[in-house]
Amino acid sequence: MKAAAQFERGAMPRYIENFPEPLPRSDDEIGMSVKAAALKHFDRSRASGKHYSAAGNISEARVIGGDGVGVLEDGTRIYAIGVGGMIAERAVIEKDRMVPLPTGIDDATAAALPNAVIGSAMPLRFKAGMQGGETVLINGATGFTGKMAVQLAKYYGAKKIIATGRNRQSLEALLDLGADEILSTQTSDKDFVAQLRKIHHHTPFDIILDYLWGPTAELIFSALKGRGSFTPKTCLVSIGSVTGDKIQLSAEILRSVNLQLSGSGLGSWTREEVQKLFTEILPEMFELAAAGKLIIETVKVNLKDIEKLWEEEVPAGKRLVIVI
Questions:
Q1: Which domains occur in the chain, in start order?
Q2: Quick one: pLDDT at residue 50?
Q3: DSSP code of residue 3
Q4: Least crowded by CB within 10 Å, which of 83, 104, 141, 269?
């Protein structure tokens, strides 16, 4: 079968036309024909060995990609997470890690959607316990997952959504997706903190979704710092670390504000929450996308071009999808 295979950790995947076809190893697994798979930062990070979930060494060639859209033997179109790699003509999946797709959603959109939903709906629902009428700050909202977070915060009933990002044009586009206010991270640190404090004073942040970490997270914590009086409860959820994996956090900040700090990623969810992802959240999101109620932008490329596009960056807010 045709596949994008990696022969050693950190190496560029190669397009292979005669890669061995994977076979189910138990009754809990089933084979599928793959039609499309998104290529995400997560996939590149795992392939390089830099992501915390990438353990051990590759002793033999492996297919890259963790999830995708395809067809079962009976013709059912599904989204699924693979037992092995997914950027290939065939893949093996676990039967309880797949979701039937509704009519009206194309393969590329269905392949691109889930990772962004995992990075936005899971922290909103399970880490922050979002309720309607809350104010949500999204730090780093101009990326693909950040754009989804704006839309889902609006869908879940946010009273006010504030979005931050570097690109002014991309920020302004978020106003059409549901953001009420936008802040550029390209301003001075002093001005950025002052703007955050002003907004927080009038409409306190109930939830902060952070996709950047690094310097901007430190500035957000500075803006939240209390002065010895009662403070509203704020839940900050770390989801990504685009601008840095480590920060300096003053103990005074933690003691001066009613702050709940958590993370959302592999290993942070319960089995029950992951089950709800497949049985409730993803089916609902696929239906919304099929009805045109979620804006999802993709860049489609052919599997045979994997070596050309591996290091390429797609336009901000779009997802690269490999068509097979």
A1: 3-116+297-323 (3.90.180.10), 120-263 (3.40.50.720)
A2: 41
A3: E
A4: 104
The pTM score is 0.91
Alpha carbons 132 and 126: distance in angstroms, whole number: 14
Residue 4 contacts by C-beta under 8 Å, 6 or more apart in sequence? 13, 14, 15, 16, 63, 64, 65, 85, 87, 88, 303, 306, 322
Return all residues near 169 (Cβ < 8 A) that are at least 6 apart: none
Q: What span, in angstroms and rounded, lies between the C-alpha atoms of 152 and 221? A: 24
- For the beta carbon of residue 255, count every other beta carbon within 10 angstroms: 11
Q: 3-state DSSP call for residue 82?
A: strand
In the structure encoding, which two tokens stand for residue 213, read together? Answer: 């970490």
pLDDT tens across 250-289, in order? 999 999 999 999 999 989 999 999 999 999 999 999 999 9
* Predicted pLDDT of residue 61: 78
CA distance from start to end of the chain = 11
Cα-based distances in Å from 162 to 44, 171, 286: 29, 10, 25
In which element (H, E) is residue 144 found? Answer: helix 144-155
pLDDT in tens, 223-252: 999 988 899 999 999 999 999 999 999 999
Contact criterion met (CB below 8 Å) for 228 and 256: yes
